[in-house]
Amino acid sequence: MVYIPFDIILFEILIRLHGRSIDQYKCVCRQWNEGLSSWQFMSLHVNYVEEYLVRIRRK
């Protein structure tokens, strides 16, 4: 089994999820709750969503 560091999971995978899904993943474990509740994650998630919406509107 391949080990994926938590920061890669958090900042490369979970950042792409819908807000409701993120709330559900907070229940996985304490580390995920803290990571998903951090201001760094929230800021990056908002930026990702804004960029995604801009790309969609251009099409």
UniProtKB/TrEMBL annotation:
InterPro entries: F-box-like_dom_sf
Entry protein name: F-box-like domain superfamily protein
Organism: Helianthus annuus (Common sunflower)
